[in-house]
Every structure is written in structure tokens, then in C-alpha cells.
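Thread amino acids onto this structure.
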């Protein structure tokens, strides 16, 4: 099953850079699904904006569309709440409770709705006194909330870090993870722990983070703009020696949501985000209004070949090989392999804005692809084959401004 909520453990990996992480059997490939925050934020005004407010109807509608529009069959199988879903006060037993007007059926019923559609249900909380939106935080209620989420049928938990001391997170996030595991209900654990520590000038304990969390944020929240997407790409490239080694089956770097199909990205920039999130082995969590998405953007999100790169079972995060004149070369080892040789995904990314496509000539050898038998090379967005390309052969491409060319280079010797 795609989408990262598989409970079957993979065998030994062929590359030694993958480190051991949380072994709850979950997120063996990057999680995929739909998350509310970037597109719908904390809109609680259901009286004046019932179409877009944070309510059970919004999440049920998105679940319906994941199934009917074919997203779920491609692996987008999580539907997750974000902030602003609960009441402002806990109940008399100290338990969280959903806003009774916006979620009149309650959270267990919403989770059951997802499960009946073959989907997984996610929820949001915060390791602080309050959530970022001012709703009850988890401090003082770690075990209660873990037990509540299990009772409700939650499959995926996102734990934010507003209104908390980052120094306390080294203890608090693992503690909550242990409470989640103690429920014996499989729940993917999404953490914001390193993001808050890095922002405060701390050096995160990556060994503990990897052992605790299935995925984690480590940079700024994404906004609806190319500038935001580019800043994330630059951060992942500039800090790749510290970031990439932490990723692998069961434990992923999370550069934040896909904003494809919203207001801020052009068609070329949307392909660039999808390609780079595939190179990053990043969670593919859409935050878009599926009721009105343009078909050409939906096609980007549903590109089976790009999704296959993202979900490659080796789970190795890609790296930036070069950056010159705002043209970047990125590679990611993927399956199949043959001996010590691997197939690769190659992204040629342009961050140029000078208005015309850039001619790029490269050899696979210059990117570290050296198999003498060559590689079957396919452009994954334009869907055409370059045939078998050998390491010293010249490959000539044109890359659009703030766009990408994504190539799949499969070992000829492994086919």
C-alpha cells in the first residue's frame, strides 16, 4: 500500500546511509494524504462561511473527493485535522472535546467515516499550554490525550509546539510517543520538535527524534508562494549534510504541505514542488480545495511516476549535486539496484526568473551515475523516453524559469 501507513517491515536496505528509527511498523514510505491547514487555516466562521470553515462537513467532503477523484487509489489515504477543531475547554474529565457546533457528530464518528472509505484519520494537538490557535494544549494531559485518540480511532497524530519551552521537548515529545505506543493502536507520530528547537538556536537531538517520530518538521511553515517553496528547497540543499542522513523508512524529514492547485504557484512552479518533494522523500500532504482544483494541477498531484519516485522503498533522501547560475542538479537513488549500482531520479531545477527556458547539457557521469551498461531515461512530466543513455553521453534539456525537468534513470543492467 502506498501512503506510508503500512505495517509490514521491509528487509535489509542496500545502502548504509539509512539510519535506524522508530520501529512501530508505520510510515515505511512517506505518508500521503490531505491536511487542512495551509488552505483553510483557522476559519471557524461557519455561520458566514459554511463552505470553507473547519467543520466535519469540510473533512467528509475532502474524504469523498479523495476516493471519487482517484487520489486514494494512488496512495493519498490520510485525512487530517489541523488546529482549531476542539472546544476552548476540556470536559469535566479533562478530555478534549470537538467543537459541538462545527463537529456535531463528534470525532469518533468522523474517524469512522474515514475508515469506511478505506482512509486513515489524523488529528492535531500541541505540546504546549495552548495550540497555536489558542485551543487546549497537551501539557498535563499526555496520557489522557493519547488514550482519547486511541479510543476515537485516530491513525495519525500531528503534535505542534506553540506555547511551549523548546528545552522541554526533548523529554515531552518522547513521553507522548510512549503514551501513543502504549495504547496498542497504530498511530503515525508527526512532530514539530526540531523546528522549534532550531528556531530557538538549539541543536536538536536527532538520535532521539529519529527514535521517537515517524516524521518531523525542521523549517518554516510553507506559505502560498514560490518564494516560500524556494526557501524550503534552498534550506534542504544548504543543510543537506545534516538533514538527509536522518531520513529513511519509518522516519522522514517533512518540508511541509503541497500547495499545488492553490493561488500562489504557477504551473511550472507546481511541477517543481512536486518533483522536489519526490527527491526529498517527503510526505505528500496536500492542502488544497479538491472541490475546485484545476485539472492540470490535479494531474501533477496524480502523476503516478513521480509518486513512485517519492514512495521508492529504499527511502533514501536525495541530494543537491551542483548549483550554478541558479540551475541546480539533484539526484536520489531509487530502485531497482544491481550490485553496488542504483537507479536514480534526477531533477534539474531552475530558480532563474529571466523569462526564457535555459538550455542545459549534462552527462550522467557528472551526476555520479556511472554504470557502464547505461540507464533507461524517461522524462516523468513530459512522459517521453530518451532511450538508453550511457554515463558519458550528452543529454540536452531545456528547463523553464522556476521550473524543473525530472528524469527517471533506471539501470539497464537491472531490467
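Threaded sequence (415 positions):
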Amino acid at each position: 500500500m502506498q501512503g506510508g501507513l503500512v505495517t509490514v517491515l521491509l528487509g535489509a536496505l542496500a545502502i548504509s546511509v539509512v539510519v535506524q528509527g522508530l520501529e512501530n511498523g508505520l510510515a515505511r514510505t512517506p505518508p500521503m494524504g490531505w491536511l487542512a491547514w495551509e488552505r483553510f487555516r483557522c476559519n471557524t466562521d461557519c455561520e458566514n462561511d459554511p463552505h470553507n470553515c473547519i467543520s466535519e462537513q469540510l473533512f467528509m467532503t475532502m474524504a469523498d473527493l479523495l476516493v471519487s477523484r482517484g487520489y486514494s487509489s494512488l496512495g493519498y489515504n490520510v485525512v487530517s485535522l489541523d488546529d482549531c477543531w476542539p472546544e476552548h475547554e476540556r470536559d469535566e474529565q479533562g478530555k478534549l472535546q470537538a467543537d459541538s457546533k462545527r463537529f456535531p457528530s463528534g470525532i469518533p464518528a468522523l474517524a469512522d467515516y474515514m475508515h469506511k472509505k478505506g482512509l486513515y484519520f489524523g488529528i492535531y494537538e500541541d505540546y504546549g499550554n495552548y495550540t497555536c490557535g489558542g485551543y487546549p494544549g497537551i501539557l498535563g494531559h499526555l496520557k489522557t490525550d493519547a488514550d482519547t485518540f486511541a479510543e476515537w480511532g485516530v491513525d495519525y497524530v500531528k503534535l505542534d509546539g506553540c506555547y511551549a519551552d523548546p528545552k522541554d521537548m526533548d523529554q515531552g515529545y518522547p513521553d507522548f510517543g510512549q503514551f501513543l505506543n502504549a495504547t496498542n493502536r497504530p498511530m503515525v507520530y508527526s512532530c514539530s520538535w526540531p523546528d522549534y528547537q532550531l528556531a530557538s538556536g538549539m541543536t536538536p537531538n536527532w538520535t532521539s527524534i529519529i527514535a521517537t517520530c515517524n516524521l518531523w518538521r525542521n523549517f518554516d511553515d510553507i506559505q502560498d508562494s514560490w518564494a516560500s517553496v524556494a526557501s524550503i528547497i534552498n534550506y534542504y540543499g544548504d543543510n543537506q549534510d545534516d538533514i538527509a542522513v536522518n531520513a529513511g523508512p519509518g522516519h522522514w524529514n517533512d518540508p511541509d504541505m503541497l500547495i499545488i492547485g492553490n493561488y500562489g504557484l504557477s504551473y511550472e512552479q507546481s511541477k517543481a514542488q512536486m518533483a522536489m518533494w519526490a527527491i526529498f522523500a517527503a510526505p505528500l500532504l496536500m492542502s488544497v480545495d479538491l472541490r475546485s482544483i484545476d485539472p492540470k494541477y490535479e494531474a501533477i498531484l496524480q502523476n503516478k511516476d513521480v509518486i513512485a519516485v517519492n514512495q521508492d522503498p529504499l527511502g533514501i533522501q536525495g541530494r543537491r549535486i551542483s548549483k550554478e547560475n541558479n540551475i541546480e542538479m539533484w539526484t536520489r537513488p531509487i530502485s531497482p539496484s544491481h550490485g553496488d549500482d542504483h537507479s536514480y531520479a534526477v531533477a534539474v531545477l531552475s530558480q532563474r526568473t529571466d523569462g526564457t527556458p535555459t538550455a542545459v547539457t549534462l552527462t550522467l557521469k557528472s551526476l555520479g551515475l556511472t554504470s557502464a551498461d547505461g540507464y533507461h531515461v524517461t522524462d516523468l512530466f513530459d512522459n517521453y523516453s530518451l532511450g538508453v543513455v550511457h554515463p558519458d553521453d550528452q543529454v540536452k534539456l531545456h528547463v523553464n524559469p522556476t521550473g524543473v525537468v525530472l528524469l527517471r534513470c533506471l539501470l539497464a543492467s537491472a531490467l
